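look at this one:
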Amino acid sequence: MPGAASWGSVPRLAFGGDYNPDQWDRDVWREDVRLMQRAGVNLVSLGIFSWSWIEPDQDRFDFSGMDEVIALLHEGGVSVDLATPSASPPPWFSEEYPDAQFVDHLGRSLGHGSRQGFCPSSPDYRRRAGVVADRLARRYGEHPAVVMWHVGNEIGGYNTHCHCPTSAEAFRSWLRARHGDLDGLNRAWGTAFWSQRYSAWSQVRIPGATPGRTNPAQQLDYYRFASDEVLACYRTERDILHLHSPGRPVTTNFMAGSFKWADYCAWGPEVDLVTNDHYLVAADPEAHTGLAFSADLSRGIAAGRPWLLMEHSTSAVQWQPRNTAKRPGEMLRNSLAHIARGSDGACFFQWRQSDSGVEKWHSAMVPQGGESTRIWQEVVRLGAVLRRIGEVAGSTVTGEVAMLWDYENYWALEMGGRPSVDLEYATEAEAWHRAVWQQGVVCDVIPSDVSADVLSRYRLVLLPSHYLATPGTVRALTAYVHDGGHLLVGPFSGLVDRDDRLHPGPHPGALRDLLGLTVDEFLPLREGAALTLDNGLTGRVWAEAVHPDGTDGAVVDARFADGPAAGGPALLRHSAGAGLARYAATRFEDSSLRALIAGALDEAGVGSTAPGAGDGVEVVRRTAEDGRSWLFVLNHTDDTVEVACGGVELLSNTTITGRLTVGAGDVAVVRESGSPDAS
């Protein structure tokens, strides 16, 4: 059963990275193990892109190099996260199976020469990926060095949406399972519009290039299908690995927060251990808040349990327009920020920096300059820090605030034909999360398919953008508010069902009764325009013509001072049962959003983890079942700061009584007073 193996024998806190020995001569391998020991590496992901190394021609396997490397790692005390190499089929595969190649939305067959150059629905691809996974699992499934399995790499990152004939037939099969028959499909897709009614399954195709807009319900189903297909590729290999290597966790690395097309909320229960890749957006001076969002989402996908940072970078990457290097100390700060938010380790892409190929300018744990470099010295320091704070492993993070996240909403909101292209799902969610982060509060980012019992753990629930509302989510939110919870909802929410069909009655449809209001008209702003509220806040992108329902529980907190809805309600509240639901009829610029969130936190009784720590100082608490707790303090500013706390600071092994001083850009981890001594 997925999830049954959990962490198994995976070292915690895990420290290491992707190891690609097939890029190097054998004389480098022993040097690699020596350096791993020096840095304190305890886990490497091996063989992720090694298909052509271990199967140079179809059915001709050569495991001699892999045998030697695994033996060296085991001898050196380094555990192996052994990968199936299915992310990058070798050239012989493309030549042997041309029908398995990826086809884009314009009908172009894209050739070999990159990675993920295959159709996820191809039976030939799945069969050959299964063969290599089977051979690996039979050979190494009981090897004492192999503690974990890693299927593929960033599955679907380049090839989620294939438009080949095989994908089209698979899509039709998926639709039959979902809708039953053509009548069900026609009802769901609303094909009466534009004379799109289907009379035979052969007429149904993958949405591609058309003269006008594509049917949004068809498009949404295709996105669901595509996510399910790449997940099916994972399941095929996972089940083989479970069969031949029982007890060892199987995972695949997510890209939570940066990748749109895989429904990781649905994928979470399918992996034994949630792992995630995260890379800073170099152009964003506040990129550490995006890191926090990705980590909090990873924790939410893991249902609050510890997860693992599988990849991040020691310094610059090579795939962004301008690949800025990390400043001294930033790698340590980034790594501990992930651990503070629930990761039981910090791993990197990659161990040794390549000297050829498209990623040779991507930083690594061992730079091209070797041991004399700043990056290597910081890697060694990070290894020492992780050993010092190893006692935090297994502890968890729990916020008093939750934000609901939903990939189907992400897809549905950003399809064509919406009132404004500026209604971006992830951008708004990250803005709300950043506003919570700025208040020194931890926000759990959790799947929207959630029960009222889960929501009851939180003082405040945020719903920045929820265009597509399912009955289950609406029931959970209603019960949560009626039982005393506080809810804050952003505009253009609650409008359609899972088939992108409007909920009956006045807007906002499914959320109308809970919010105690109706919306007459949506009033998007022109590009770059802004508006003001009579309480001094500034809105952007959007306005609505809103009417409270007239009951005693419905109150207008602020009105639009100008703009297309001037004089109308902009912020409203509705008392429902013992709780409160608030609605914002615009999107806010950053400082106004921060003020809005601060007010909602205060009203819900949520305070900062470290009051007075100041802007740019991240403070997060991890807690163990035995009562121990640790305060992570990450100073993202250029000034020395002080934080009120007491206990033992683990990096320096000093006792803190009342005030902790943290230098500019520095970090601290405090086992708090009252925690049992780990020794």
The two ends are 36 Å apart (CA to CA).
